Amino acid sequence: MALLPAVTADRFGHRDAGAVIGVLYTGRGIALLAAAPALALLSEWSGGYALPLGAMALAAPAGWRCLRPCRGRLRSTCRPTRQRSRTT
User: Fold this and answer.
1) Closest CA to 74 of 3, 6, 11, 27
2) Secondary structure class of 18 (helix, strand, coil)
């Protein structure tokens, strides 16, 4: 979390860094608020931790697949800065 603003500014540019960081922190906040109660309800309903852990194990790749269509668009705007080689 400490490096998120710096990495975001490097990847998306400094011009819109504030908006992008705001979206990232808002998404994380919503996920943190929703995940704990949802997993508690699942564990009480199922009587154990197998179903909630399985749901989380499936949720991560599903989220990754949701971002897949944006991959080409992000590549055109995400150009990491190249590090200059130091010659001394």
Assistant:
1) 11
2) helix
For residue 48, tell me if it sits in a domain: yes
Name the DSSP letter for residue 83: P
Residue 42 lies in a domain: yes
Q: Of the candidates 4, 6, 10, which has an alpha carbon nearest to the alpha carbon of residue 77?
A: 10
In angstroms, the CA 31 to CA 41 distance is 15
| Structural domain of 27 | 4-68
Q: What is the pLDDT of residues 10-42, one digit of tens each?
A: 877 788 888 888 888 898 899 889 988 988 998
CA angle 48, 50, 52 (to 5 degrees): 90
Name the pTM for this structure: 0.54
